[in-house]
Amino acid sequence: MSAKILSGTETAKAIRQELAQEVAELKAKHNVVPGLVTILVGEDPASQSYVTAKNKTAKELGIYSEQISLPATTNEADLLALVNKCNQDPKINGILVQLPLPKHINEARVLYTIDPNKDVDGFHPVNVGKMMLGEQCFLPCTPHGILELLTRGGVNTKGAEVVVVGRSNIVGKPIANLMLQKRPAGDATVTICHTRTKDMAAHTRRADIIIAAVGVPKLITADMVKEGVAVIDVGVNRIGMTESGKAILAGDVDFEAVKEKASCITPVPGGVGPMTITMLMKNTVQSAKMAAGLI
Ligand code: NAP
Fold first, then answer.
1. Mean local confidence (pLDDT), 182-209
2. Contact at 8 Å (CB) between 131 and 71?
3. Residue nearest atom 2 in ligand 1 by C-alpha distance
4. What are phi and psi of 5, to 5 degrees?
5. What is the sign of the dihedral through the CA atoms of 174, 176, 178 and 180?
6. Predicted pLDDT at 46
7. pLDDT (tens digit, 9 = 90+) per residue, 112-125?
8. 92: which residues sit within 8 A by CB, 6+ positions away?
């Protein structure tokens, strides 16, 4: 069996079309234009390209976007003052501070300063807490994107054995929590594996759905999965460079071998990645609707 490819590129395209229409309607009917600000500190090339992609996508959807780039020497007080200014700015519905921040800045202090009502990354403890409780909030973008991929890809999660590999605050823990909730793409029985897990393959082999969010190229091999498993590969690992200087990417799953056993699988690139940016846009639109009293 060769797996159905769960294309994040295609799914994201469909959601972006829906969002573009929603943004146009918000403007036409309510004179509401969702606004996103991205704040980048320093010149990390990967972060620069992420921020550029986010602003480009926002513009394509009709979302007002501001890209603020600050030098790596920016001090924490100045960054906090900027975040507070954005908190007060009625044009801005979403504030994204690109991580990682330079070492001399306390990342938590910055993220906690963002108004929870503008925290479209879903990293503020208020939103994390509401997510845990199943209340309306901004869901963190990567787990949110995974839920959409599963739902739109027709993957049944109800009663499914889900094994999440990785326990980070931005992917592993939230996706595990969301999938055990009573909600679409939820109602699963969830196991989380990490570096201290004794026999990871014993867990992954009984999984109906594997979510790999590790950061180790091709960690999940074909002998670690059962026939018919659904695989979501979150990993983005740079494993080399093409002659033209483009990064060669691999996921956390040995795609070529695992796809022969899986029922469906996400590719890398073109899987979870495009969904993450799209969910940032969805959260920004949701924030604008909340600010306008429309939800
Ligand atoms: P992270 O914070 O580094 O966490 C990695 C997790 O994997 C940790 O919990 C770690 O366990 C676990 N782990 C590492 N090696 C392992 C091993 N050999 N066996 C079992 N568990 C292992 O990473 P992250 O931020 O969640 O990101 C994970 C990957 O997803 C990265 O490649 C990242 O680039 C990618 N990512 C992609 C997107 C996207 O939009 N496509 C978004 C976010 C992240 P311990 O806790 O025990 O150390």
1. 98
2. no
3. 168
4. -90, 120
5. negative
6. 86
7. 999 999 999 999 99
8. 35, 36, 37, 66, 86, 118
Best residue among 168, 221, 238, 239 to mutate for probing ligand 1, ranked by most atoms within 8 Å of CB: 168
This prediction's pTM: 0.96
Identify the bridge partners of residue 4 per DSSP, sorted by sequence position.
264
Q: Is 223 part of the annotated catalytic residue set? A: no
pLDDT of residue 147: 98
pLDDT above 90 coverage of the chain, percent = 97
* Alpha carbon 281 to chain centroid, angstroms: 11
- Ligand 1 within 6 A of 15 CB? no
Residue 277's H or E segment, with its range, is helix 272-291
For the stretch 131-174, pLDDT in tens is: 999 999 999 999 999 999 999 999 999 999 999 999 999 999 99
Report domain 141-273's class. Answer: alpha beta
Q: Could you tell me if the CB of 182 is within 6 A of ligand 1?
A: no
In percent, the amount of the chain with pLDDT more than 70 equals: 100
Here the tokens at position 272 are 């979870």
Distance separating alpha carbons of residues 295 and 290, to the nearest angstrom: 5
- Domain limits of the chain? 30-118, 141-273
Characterize the bridge pairing of strands 237-241 and 247-250.
antiparallel
Q: Report the pLDDT value the prediction gives residue 1, as an integer from 0 to 100.
A: 67
pLDDT beyond 70 at 19: yes
Give me the half-sphere count of Cα atoms (radius 13 Å) on the Cβ side of residue 127. Answer: 24
d(CA 225, CA 227): 7
Residue type, 148: E
Dihedral pair phi/psi, residue 258, rounded to 5° = -70, -30
Q: Which helix (H) or strand (E) holds 82?
A: helix 76-88
- In DSSP terms, 41 is beta-bridged to 70
Whether 141-273 and 30-118 are alike in CATH topology: the answer is: yes
d(CA 237, ligand 1 centre) in Å: 10
Is the domain spanning 30-118 CATH 3.40.50.620? The answer is no
